[in-house]
Design goal:
Elements lengths: L5 H39 L3 H7 L2 H21 L15 H34 L7 H25 L17 E2 L11 E2 L3 H28 L3 H27 L8 H37 L16 E2 L6 E2 L18
Antiparallel strand pairs: 1-2, 3-4
């Protein structure tokens, strides 16, 4: 018995995708509010370690902004929005094809590389607290995204305009296809060019081992069990999500865009990156800033002294986090504020 026919799968997976993308956008706005609030608080804080942590705020903005851009770009390819009565229904076929190409360039070429490079910069910067410039790290992060953007843009916009070699099949370069029949849908279906999938896979082969090596080095520095759980959770997510993302995009070339199998694979690809983006924002942005703001609230502002908080604090992962209540280990787990 078939539980999901193509129209049902398109609507069901479309609604779930729309809900998750909206939730990720809201999470991005929340993360941005945390970054801006902490920047304002750190500039006025007497606790100098908070100012060191705040130095990476431009990189956090890139992480949040790239996640925001990725969620928006995923809406460009969503079949639900091309159905009768939805946002892209009245667009012509050429305009919808342009949205599919734009999705490849914006999502695979810009948002995903910038997101993962920003995560690497934050993880590496957290092990070099107080060293380097956050603006310089942000510049290097954005500059490092340009090669991927150029390659994916060429695959999406350039190669289809060129005369394709005979050995290069259409699914290597095409980012859209036309439906075989109507069914309330006009225009085109977005797909994943196999060359873009190969480029993404090559980037992941270079990124994932380096990120895991940084995580391993971080575990040697972490003296807080809660932070250790965060590092393990982030590492596991980064290990699994890109692999699922690339495999789903690669296997999807065996089906047409309106086939139920393609819709399931496209949703699986979306879900893997969505989970990775949400976990990274929570662990690398929201939680460390929330911990730091909690510690800052314990520091008196009416005199020049800096009082130690009632729990031991650590300065790893770029965060100030209350240590678990362990009286035997409390003193040796304390890492005091930076001295001026």
């Amino acid at each position: 018995m078939v539980f999901l026919q193509p129209p049902d799968a398109t609507h069901l997976l479309g609604f779930v995708t729309l809900f998750l993308a909206s939730a990720l956008l809201l999470l991005g706005l929340l993360s941005l509010a945390f970054v801006l609030r902490f920047r304002f608080k750190a500039q006025r804080s007497r606790f100098l370690a908070l100012r060191d942590f705040n130095s990476l705020w431009p990189v956090r903005i890139i992480l949040v902004g790239s996640s925001f851009l990725w969620a928006l770009s995923e809406l460009f390819r969503l079949p639900l929005l091309r159905q009768r009565g939805w946002l892209f229904y009245r667009l012509g076929s050429s305009q919808q094809a342009g949205l599919c190409r734009l999705h490849v360039a914006a999502s695979l070429g810009l948002a995903e590389p910038c997101f993962f490079l920003a995560a690497v910069s934050l993880l590496r910067g957290s092990m070099q607290a107080g060293k380097g410039s956050g603006r310089w790290a942000a510049f290097l992060t954005m500059a490092s995204c340009l090669p991927a953007l150029a390659l994916h843009s060429f695959v999406a916009f350039g190669l289809p305009q060129l005369r394709r070699p005979r050995y290069l099949d259409h699914f290597f370069v095409e980012s859209f296809g036309r439906p075989r029949h109507g069914g309330g849908t006009t225009g085109v279906w977005c797909s994943f060019p196999l060359l873009s999938t190969i480029i993404t896979a090559a980037s992941g082969i270079a990124f994932v081992p380096y990120f895991l090596s940084l995580s391993w080095r971080m575990m040697d520095m972490v003296i807080n069990r809660r932070l250790g759980v965060r590092v393990y959770g982030l590492s596991l997510t980064v290990l699994i999500s890109p692999a699922v993302h690339v495999c789903a995009m690669g296997v999807s070339v065996f089906w047409k865009g309106q086939d139920v199998e393609f819709q399931i694979l496209a949703f699986l690809s979306f879900l893997s990156v969505c989970v990775c983006s949400a976990v990274a924002q929570i662990i690398l942005v929201i939680m460390p800033i929330a911990d730091s703001l909690a510690v800052d609230s314990l520091i008196p502002a009416d005199d020049g002294t800096e009082k130690k908080p009632p729990h031991a604090c650590v300065l790893h992962m770029g965060s100030l986090s209350p240590e678990d209540e362990d009286e035997d280990d409390g003193e040796e787990l304390l890492l005091g504020p930076t001295q001026g």
